[in-house]
Amino acid sequence: MKKSSDNNIVKSINRNVRSSPRKINLLLRNIRGKKADIAIRNLSFSRKRIANDIRKTVQSAVANAENNNQFDIDNLYIDEAYVGKSIVLKRFRARAKGRASAIKKPFSNVTIILKEQTSKEKKEIHGTKS
């Protein structure tokens, strides 16, 4: 967990997740901008294998926000969620006539950034801006 210079931001990084960035980004697209508890619920009921690791990363960020920065967990939402490429294990499969074909097993780094909503942001999100 790293704390940013802004007072209401908490960051959680899960390194070397055993899935490709392309597959993880499909799940991250669904949770960006949502409240943390709704994102955790959606990831709990997702049928994707990697959803459990992403859910744990979001829960870690929520726990860090609550314990380290004394944020109200009801006001947390996912400001940013992105994935980056990590190492790639290279394996091979034997083919006919003494040849081989490559098998690449990619790993990813998942970053979740939570932000605490202020009363002003709540009004703008819910459409009651005065």
Short descriptors:
4 helices, 130 residues, four-stranded antiparallel beta sheet, 36% strand, disordered N terminus, elongated, alpha+beta
Write a brief structural summary.
This protein is of the alpha+beta class and 130 residues long.
Helix and strand arrangement:
Blueprint: E1 2-3, E2 9-17, H1 21-31, H2 36-44, H3 51-69, E3 76-94, E4 100-116, H4 119-126
Antiparallel strand pairs: 1-2, 2-4, 3-4
Helix pairs in contact: 2-3
Explain what the structure shows.
This protein has 130 residues and is an alpha+beta fold. The protein is built from 4 helices and 4 strands; from the N terminus they run ββαααββα. A 4-stranded antiparallel sheet has the order 1-2-4-3. The longest helix has 19 residues. The protein is elongated. The relative contact order is 0.24.
Termini gap: 36 Å
**Over the alpha carbons, how many angstroms does the gyration radius reach?**
18 Å
- Count of distinct strands: 4
Question: Mean of the pLDDT scores?
Answer: 88
Helical region count?
Answer: 4
Q: Report the structural category.
A: alpha+beta
Work out the helicity level.
25-40%
Strand content is 35-45%
Oligomeric form = single chain
Shape: elongated
Biggest beta sheet summary = 4 strands, antiparallel
Order of SSEs, N→C?
EEHHHEEH
**Unreliable residue runs:** 1-5
